[in-house]
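Supplementary Note 2. Why include the ligand at all?

Several targets in our set were suspected to adopt different conformations when bound, so apo predictions alone were not considered sufficient. For every target with a known small-molecule partner we therefore ran a joint prediction. The input for flavin-adenine dinucleotide is given below.
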Amino acid sequence: MGLSRFDYYAPETIGDACELAGKLGEGTMFMAGGTDLLIKAKRRLLNVSAVIDIKKIKELNKITFDEKEGLVIGSTVTLTEIENHPLIKEKYPAIADAAAATANVQIRNMASAAGNLCNAAPSAENAPVLLAMGANVTVEGRDGKRIIPLDKFFTGPGQTVLKQGELLTAINVPVPPKGAGTSYQHISARGKVDISSVCVGAMLVMKGDICEDARIFLGAVAPTPMMAKNAQELLKGKKITEELLQTAGIEASKECKPITDMRASKEYRTLMVAVLTGRAIDESRRRAAK
Ligand SMILES: Cc1cc2nc3c(=O)[nH]c(=O)nc-3n(C[C@H](O)[C@H](O)[C@H](O)COP(=O)(O)OP(=O)(O)OC[C@H]3O[C@@H](n4cnc5c(N)ncnc54)[C@H](O)[C@@H]3O)c2cc1C
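The joint prediction is reproduced in token form.
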């Protein structure tokens, strides 16, 4: 089945993109890498009448960092750029790990992290770490700009709070707290080429051996990426021992709500949540100690 016909636009400013999207209305889709959009359009999973390619908008294609505002990733920055960015690798290693774990090199050279979030697959590889680090997103439309905490962004499989014509312009990640360590863990049936069956993002804030704060998010085990609340609580104020990280992993597996699909069974996913959560806690703790 080939692509159906649609109108194509390539504006050069955010203002023009939002104006166009507002004017064209229903059936108009923004496109960054197109690695989800064009496949869905081809399979007729989306009714696309117009595509607004945002890759010509220069201000969306940048990564910035400052010690107060933290990290800002523009919405056309590719996963390859994130994976290889020296500052992200140094200060936000789990974000680089999640980008590197997404798809294969050809896809990462085209795809954006913003597109991964807007596509809103429950398994979206880049969501759990960003959630664990307290990220928010900037979105702009004809009616102005708003900042949305990422934990309020996803509403269901393929669904977000974005309104028709709203453009996600940036992903904003705060400066990690002193003593923080982060981790991204995932498993998929066909190694690097497949989407994760389970993925976990974690951030632990350590003071010596003691965990002062913990944030753990699970992917592909609920309709949206979800917080492993009970597992987090178990860790707070305690020394992270081998036994505790295993207990927290089991707690996370009790909280998740996986389904059986072509990628994995519900039972396998439940087991893997325990294993990967334990690993994510362990790696976060070790990275915090560096
Ligand atoms: C072979 C293959 C392997 C893959 N493997 C993985 C994997 O391992 N893990 C994984 O998570 N995903 C995977 N994907 C899915 C996809 O590559 C990612 O979700 C990717 O990050 C999407 O980014 P994009 O820039 O290509 O998005 P696009 O396809 O351009 O857009 C995706 C959706 O978001 C909307 N959108 C894009 N940018 C914006 C914006 N700035 N504002 C508002 N809406 C926007 C589009 O309208 C569309 O609905 C795979 C895809 C393929 C084809």
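Residues 29-37, 39, 54, 75, 102-103, 107, 110-112, 114-116, 118-119, 121, 123-125, 162, 167-168, 195 surround flavin-adenine dinucleotide (CB under 6 Å). The mean pLDDT is 96. Comparable summaries for the other entries are listed in the accompanying table.
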